[in-house]
User: What shape does this take?
Amino acid sequence: MIFRGKTIHRVDEVAAWQLCCGCGACAYVCPDEIEMIDTSEYGRRPRFKNNSLGKTALLAMQVCPGIGLERVVKPDDQFGGQQFFDEWGPVLGVWEGHAADSEVRFEGSSGGAATALGLFALERLGMHGVLHVQSRQDVPYLNQTVLSRTRSELLAGAGSRYAPASPCDGLQQIEDAPGPCVFVGKPCDVVALRKAIELRPSLHEKVGLTIAFFCAGTPSTRGTLEMIRQMGIADLSSVISLRYRGRGWPGMATAQHKVNGQVQSAELTYEQSWGDILQKYRQWRCYICPDHVGEFADIAVADAWHCPVGEHQPGRSVIIARTQRGVEFLQRAIEMDVLQAEPVDSDILQACRPGQAESKGTLWGRLVALRTCAIPTPGYCGFDLFHLWLWRLSIGAKVKSILSTFKRIYIKKLFRKRNMASIESAMVLKAGR
Ligand SMILES: Cc1cc2nc3c(=O)[nH]c(=O)nc-3n(C[C@H](O)[C@H](O)[C@H](O)COP(=O)(O)OP(=O)(O)OC[C@H]3O[C@@H](n4cnc5c(N)ncnc54)[C@H](O)[C@@H]3O)c2cc1C
Ligand code: SF4
Ligand code: SF4
Assistant: This one.
């Protein structure tokens, strides 16, 4: 990737320019040379082992979603026409509902749809496993990738984790599996998987289904640490479990910690945890993300935010089939009463995520401002961002999309690379407590 004299040819430089989204795919394709580390300020980032760059490390750039993505699907009438496609990507059907199993629905972030579909693949379709993430047992405020093979393992990972996670660092487990597996992740994780499939036909054969959830952005670990502090917990080593959501909709952020040998719970509402704290810590790459809605997955799931939401009501999801495989999978899951879901008009997406067109239009203005300052930006092919900027933003919003980015460039110091050595010194990954 070359931009006005600045050449990015290594994934550590992708991270240094804050273009890394932390998916972990580079560590999967180059396991001998790259590992993922947890940094408090930026999230999970690639690090070269032994500080050496071997030949295979160049493969890492080929799977990296941080430097760009390309829509290969073309719009047609089945996707609702050009304008709808520009905003939402391929949509072959939309349903609203929840897991039929009340425990799955309760444990899930919204309606438990992602977990229910994974369980359906395991228990009814005989798939081998579900690759997804869960809290680390030794350091509960960090995440790990797991290949779940049983109901209890899958349920242990249910619920959104608003913290850095790299599900693609576990793709070798799918490639080595004796049968097809399900992959669950953020939209950028699914893009990385798609890119990895291009390189590895043996991986392609083993991916039975991809599920992405709508994603407003990943907060850094520092966000989680601030959340724990605002829960009134001063001693991080006393934390024995941490959930961000679920167990009701949207559910409470809940930390369990030990005080004088007694287990105590501290809670914050979703508005307090995500609204007041975590969203302020989202990594920069998320501000210039073209896919917050899982366009590249077979199935995308989201909160049914258009419904009135209290603190503890049973959750509801919006579920989108984006491929024919996704349509068939969802229809079978509904027929076999794994999901209780009704088909709904695709107009519901606008109510569920208002401002989708404006968000993509604003992205065009942000990229223009960054390029004007000769700052490397990802390459996005096939997303007609300019037309969304031109037709869907007011004059004031057009101007703001560019001028506010100049301000951010200055405040966030986006005009210079981060020093990777200092990133490493900010590592928070410590096995055990
Ligand atoms: C960072 C983040 C931002 C989000 N932003 C939005 C948004 O803007 N709009 C919206 O509608 N929904 C958003 N969600 C998703 C939403 O919170 C629900 O997760 C979604 O509705 C799916 O719910 P579910 O009950 O079907 O999932 P569940 O059945 O609870 O399953 C969730 C699955 O996601 C996996 N997972 C959890 N956290 C992560 C992570 N950080 N990285 C990779 N995989 C993970 C789990 O391992 C699990 O398999 C976000 C989630 C995250 C983690
Ligand atoms: S976005 Fe993914 S592949 Fe690219 S550098 Fe970051 S972790 Fe590696
Ligand atoms: S906002 Fe985009 S780049 Fe950021 S974590 Fe979500 S999908 Fe990845």
Notes: Residues 429-433 have pLDDT under 50 and may be disordered. The two ends are 40 Å apart (CA to CA). The pocket of flavin-adenine dinucleotide (ligand 1) is lined by residues 108-115, 132-134, 157-162, 165, 167, 184-186, 189, 213-216, 218, 246, 301-303, 305, 315, 317 (CB under 6 Å).
